[in-house]
Amino acid sequence: MADQNIHYDALIIGQGASSYAAAMYAARYQMKPIIFGAIFGGETAIGGTIENYPGYPEIDGFELMMKFREQAEKYETPIVDENIVKAEKLDDGFMVTTEEGDTYHGTSIILGVGRERRTLGLEHEAEWTGRGVSYCATCDAPMHRGNTVAVVGGGDSAVKGAVLLGKYAEKVYIVYRQDRFTRPEPINLSQLEAAENVVSIFNAQIVELLGDDGLTGIIIDQEIDGSNQLTVDGVFIEIGADPRVELPNQLGLELNDQNEVIVDKGGNTNVEGVFAAGDLTNASGDLKQTITASAQGAIAATSAYDYVSEHADSCEIHAMGYTLVEAV
Ligand SMILES: Cc1cc2nc3c(=O)[nH]c(=O)nc-3n(C[C@H](O)[C@H](O)[C@H](O)COP(=O)(O)OP(=O)(O)OC[C@H]3O[C@@H](n4cnc5c(N)ncnc54)[C@H](O)[C@@H]3O)c2cc1C
Question: To the nearest whole number, what is the mean pLDDT of the chain?
Fold first, then answer.
């Protein structure tokens, strides 16, 4: 049970893979962690089938995140199903405020609030995510063996995504609203040009997603071979994602030119006592996945443990070393 009178060792913000992994490690270090987040499971939970998380050849993302949650609950980590709207530094640590105005105190903060995917804003886009609509070619390309798919975007991730998809799909359309690609790295552009099954459609935008209980086609605002309707099994929206920087800004965290929170290899930010993990950060470059987020959550919790061991008078884990405890 969450208790506003407790001074927690780690205020973990987010309910995605990075946060749950951090909570599990923190609990096993015998810290007192607490998790906050209005939306359970983060991106993994809405990602459809996951085929690249070790130990699970194929698992629904929601089910995988339920396993993360069950593991946190096994250690009796309190979970507050509310977002944090304010995070601030106090003399004796940190205070966070939930949407309902409740406040919680802690010695450290671990931020795992991820990124906001840019969307096309089309009807059915959210509903069919995981059913033909995807925001991650790295994740879902292998599911499109022999299929026809479309990629939307003209940046590096769109071009790389189209090249990757071309290795699985029979045909790939890349739909871009400008008249040529200017932003991708030259090597990625060369690979795109060499991929014979990838067709670039310039000066075009998707205006409608077609389907019944999932995607079966798209309508674009220009004609290709006499039709503006393309039959596709999947559409990959690769138009970028924005790290959620509201809380990092409140805490004065340093960001890089992509607005990612800058962390060192221990998940330390520039503010003592504040750690960050997962897609919010620059930790794993372009490879932003459930496995990397989980690993970074574990690393951030380990650094938080070190920090709390040094700084918290009330902390029960002083000088205990890294002896892990069995789950209750
Ligand atoms: C469609 C799709 C498919 C994917 N498929 C795969 C795949 O097959 N394999 C794979 O490895 N990866 C996949 N990914 C990527 C993977 O899901 C992410 O890399 C991973 O979820 C990142 O975890 P995270 O904890 O950093 O962030 P997230 O999972 O984004 O979690 C962030 C959490 O923070 C919460 N939050 C935001 N603001 C606040 C706030 N103010 N207070 C409290 N909580 C807040 C959010 O609600 C969310 O719960 C996919 C992603 C997408 C979008």
Answer: 92
Determine the residue of 104, 287, 290, 291 to mutate for testing ligand 1's pocket, defined as the one with the most ligand atoms within 8 A of the Cβ atom.
290
pLDDT surpassing 60 at residue 26: yes
Pair of tokens at residue 165: 């998809």
Give the pLDDT band of residue 319 (cuts 50, 70, 90): very low
Q: Nearest-5° angle of CA 193, CA 194, CA 199?
A: 55
Ligand 1 residue neighbourhood (C-beta within 6 Å): 13-19, 36-37, 39, 42-44, 47, 50, 52-53, 83-84, 112-114, 117, 129, 134-136, 139, 244, 247, 278-280, 288-291, 293
CATH of 133-237, picked from 3.50.50.60, 3.40.50.1220, 2.60.40.3390, 3.30.70.20, is 3.50.50.60
In CATH, the architecture of 7-117+241-311 is: 3-Layer(bba) Sandwich (3.50)
Q: With CA atoms as reference, report the closest residue to 162 among 199, 129, 209.
A: 199
Give tens-digit pLDDT for 155-184. 888 998 999 999 999 999 999 999 999 878
- The answer, yes or no, to whether residue 47 has pLDDT greater than 80, is no
pLDDT per residue over 122-151, tens digit each? Answer: 999 999 998 999 988 888 899 999 999 999
Give nearest CA residue, ligand 1 atom 3. 47
7-117+241-311 and 133-237, same CATH topology: yes
Q: Which helix (H) or strand (E) holds 327?
A: none
Under 8 Å between Cβ of 315 and 107 = yes
For the residues 221-245, what does the mean pLDDT come to? 94
Q: Which residues, other chains included, contact 142 with Cβ-Cβ below 8 Å and sequence gap of 6+? A: 51, 168
Residue of the CA atom closest to atom 30 of ligand 1: 114
Closest to 94 in 3D by CA, of 81, 86, 79, 105: 105
pLDDT at 313: 61
Query: What is the spatial distance between Cα 234 and Cα 2, in angstroms, rounded to a whole number?
Result: 42
Q: Where exactly are the structural domains of the chain?
A: 7-117+241-311, 133-237
